[in-house]
Each structure stands twice: as C-alpha cells, then as structure tokens.
Write a structure and sequence with these properties.
It contains 14 helices and 21 strands. By secondary structure, it is α+β, with helices and mostly antiparallel strands. Strands 10, 14, 15, 16, 17, 18 and 19 form a seven-stranded mixed beta sheet that branches. Strand 17 and strand 18 form a beta hairpin. Helix 4 crosses helix 5, helix 6 packs across helix 10 and helix 10 packs across helix 11. The longest helix has 23 residues. It is elongated and about 95 Å long. It starts with a helix and ends with a strand.
Length: about 425
C-alpha cells in the first residue's frame, strides 16, 4: 500500500500511468477475501485501475508437487508476466525491501548456494523494486506519516515457513548484534551480483552453439566452467530445475572418457566429447531408407541434395562418379556392421573411421549415408568412398547438406 501510494502521488512527476494488480492465492479464506475487498475499495477511491486474479494455490502445489510458497510465487509471477506480455503494463513494480533481500541471501547461503544465490533477489526483465534500499521500518514509518491504511497478512507470522522463521527469529538477532545487518547483507548481495555478472561474462567464450545443441569447452578455472554449464542449460531452456548434484556430475565428466553421458533436467543429455561437454536433446532413431535419385530430400531431420554436374566443381559437398553408384543404393543412417572404403583406399569399420575423424558419438547416428547393403559409399558432409572416385570424363553427381528443413517438411521428401 505504501508503494501504491508513493507511485500514485508521484505519477505526474514520473510521467507514468499507474494500475494495480491483486493476486488472491486461495490460502487464507475469509481474511484473504477481505484483503481483496480492501484493495478494490482503495483503488476505487484513488482512481487506480485494478487487475484481479484468483487461484487455488494449495491445489496447484499438490498438482505440481511443489511447496505452497513455490506454487503461490509461480501463480503470482504468471499473473505479472501475463500483464507484461499482453502489453497491459510496461513495468511491474514490487515492494520488496532490504529485509526481503537479506532473507533471500540467508536462505540461499544456508542451503549451500553459490555466489549467484548470495546475489539475493535477482534482476528480472520488466520488473523494478523501488523500495529495495529501504527497511521494513522505513516503509511502516512512511505509511504512518501519510495516513496510509493497510492490512497484515497473518501467514507472515507462521514460522513453519522457512523465510518467516528467518525474518522473525534470525534477522532480529542479527540486527541486535550488528545494527543495520539487514541493509548490510543487502549491500553485500549487490556486490556479489556485480562479481557474479563479471564471472558469467568471462565464462561466455567457453559456450559455443552447435547445430543440434550447445558445447562447453573445458576450463581448469572451475568457477568459469560451472557458469558456462549453467549458460548452456539456460540456452537449452533449463532455468531453475538443476541442483548442485547436476553441476557436480558435469564437473566429473571432465575427467571421464570420451562418450560418457549424464542426464540433465528437461530431457537434456550431456556428453563428453574431446575438448568439451555437449548439451543436446536426443532424437528418435531414423529407420527410413530413401532410394538414390537426383533431387532434394529430408532424412533424420536434415535436408540434403543430389544434383548432376559436368565434373568436379568448386562447390561444397561430395562429388561422386554416377556410373559407379549401384541401382540398389539408398540414403539411410548408420547401422551395426557398416564398413567404409575411405578416399585414397583402405577399408575399415565405419565406426572406426568416424572415431578417427573425431566425429562425436551423438552426431554419428544422425549422419546421412549413401549405402549399398552394409557398404557405405558416402558420408554426407564428411567423405566420399574411394569406390566412387571421379575420373576424367565420368558423369558426376554432387551430394551436399543444406539448411535444416522447416518442421512441417521433416517427415516428407521432395524429388525432382
């Protein structure tokens, strides 16, 4: 209510159009409903438009198997984010104060959080926190000096909630021992946030986007490697579901053998590959075969082309002698027992050839092959078989990969 009053009385000065949002969590029954009536009445008196949302957060907590605090916070921020995405607000202002920030810092470091957790209440795009430098006492004093009516959420005194216990039992003792402890912890969190941002910036060069995932290069500087892994998870759409155990398993991959894998949240797989760890989502095995022909095709989520040409050219791709391609040849993905006669001679198992060429294991199953039985005649994007070598005067075809096809085309194929 103090924040609403402050922004309302300074709206002209700040050139803002103000509205309010109230979230009814369905937790406190009649008392919570009275809060909602109070807010509606006050907004009407001040002429402030009100957005109102309601949900059964206890039911959401059971359904999602999360704590009641988490379910309530998820509901609240879903409402706020909706207003932003729908263009009904440019910014959301929350009334968090330095005590809230100190609680967050203590909560995180008590659970063994990293410097990121010690940074406290994190910045969030579209949100501002004007009262963050102030204490709760500062805000209460402002309300009293300006005659602002307010209500108290009685659940804030329930010490079964961890944050309440920190606020009611721990912070007062700290303030008694070290006056100003709350503001000091909040200031520490700001410095930690600045240091953490620098470390993330230094970690960014270790992260490389790849066609089917994100790669993190090895580093002997553990703080940078960990942050690079977190950046990779975020790039793959995993924001908060990881734990310290996941990060420890990623660090363990550094000293494991090539090809070792670890599962991450969000159906993400990580695999050690030569100079780093790759984060990817595995694809279902491709079992289709496409008979050899000229044209444009889709297989294993990739598009490739086969076109006739007068001879060896300078374009990208592999050049093959058309007359040496058997009528029974097909495009497919790899299978056990495949063999390959590499360009220049020398037959070996396809698996061994790909290992020699340092093709990552996760990539091998998605390679598009031109095959006749178990004999591989071409590995598109890699090498042509010696058996398809082009000699002077040979009719020639060029085989090359193109961009990944649109989703609606991935199951079909196009032929000239």
């Amino acid at each position: 209510m103090s924040l609403l009053h402050y922004l309302h009385t300074h709206a002209a000065q700040y050139s803002i159009v103000l509205s309010a949002v109230h979230c009814e969590h369905g937790i406190r029954g009649a008392s919570s409903e009275e809060d909602a009536r109070f807010v509606r009445k006050q907004c009407a008196e001040w002429g402030i438009p009100l957005y109102f949302y309601a949900a059964d957060c206890p039911a959401l907590a059971r359904e999602r198997k999360v704590s009641l605090e988490t379910a309530a916070r998820q509901f609240r921020y879903a409402c706020f984010d909706g207003l932003l995405s729908e263009g009904k607000a440019d910014l959301i202002a929350t009334a968090h104060h330095c005590g809230d920030n100190a609680e967050t810092v203590l909560f995180h470091i008590s659970r063994g959080a990293s410097l990121t957790g010690a940074a406290g209440i994190s910045d969030r795009t579209g949100y501002i926190r004007p009262f963050l430098p102030l204490s709760e006492a500062d805000i209460v004093r402002y309300a009293e000096e300006n005659g602002i009516a307010y209500r108290t959420d009685e659940s804030n005194t329930d010490e079964r909630f961890t944050r309440n216990a920190l606020r009611l039992r721990v912070l007062p003792v700290l303030e008694e021992i070290v006056p100003g402890a709350g503001k000091n912890i909040s200031r520490f969190s700001r410095l930690a946030r600045e240091d953490d941002a620098l470390l993330y910036a230094l970690a960014q060069p270790l992260v490389r986007e790849e066609r089917d995932g994100v790669k993190v290069l090895f580093s002997d500087r553990a703080p940078l490697f960990r942050r690079a892994c977190l950046l990779a998870l975020k790039a793959m759409g995993v924001g908060k579901d990881y734990t310290s155990a996941h990060l420890s398993s990623l660090s363990a991959l550094c000293s494991s053998n090539n090809g070792e894998e670890v599962s991450m949240p969000g159906n993400i797989r990580t695999i050690r590959e030569y100079d780093g760890i790759t984060f990817y989502r595995s694809r279902p095995a491709e079992t289709r075969e496409i008979p050899f022909a000229l044209g444009s095709f889709c297989l294993a989520g990739r598009r490739f082309c086969v076109e006739a040409c007068p001879g060896r050219g300078d374009g990208e791709g592999l050049y093959a002698a058309l007359s040496r391609i058997p009528a029974s040849a097909v495009f497919r993905t790899r299978r056990a027992g495949d063999v390959f006669c590499k360009f220049g001679g020398g037959e070996k198992k396809l698996k061994d050839f790909l290992i020699d060429r340092k093709i990552p294991r996760r990539v091998r199953d998605g390679l598009i092959l031109l095959a006749d039985g178990r004999e591989i005649l071409a590995v598109l994007g890699v090498e042509i078989s010696e058996k398809l070598r082009v000699n002077d005067g040979d009719p020639t075809v060029r085989l090359y990969l193109t961009e990944e096809p649109p989703a609606e085309e991935k199951r079909g194929e196009e032929k000239e």
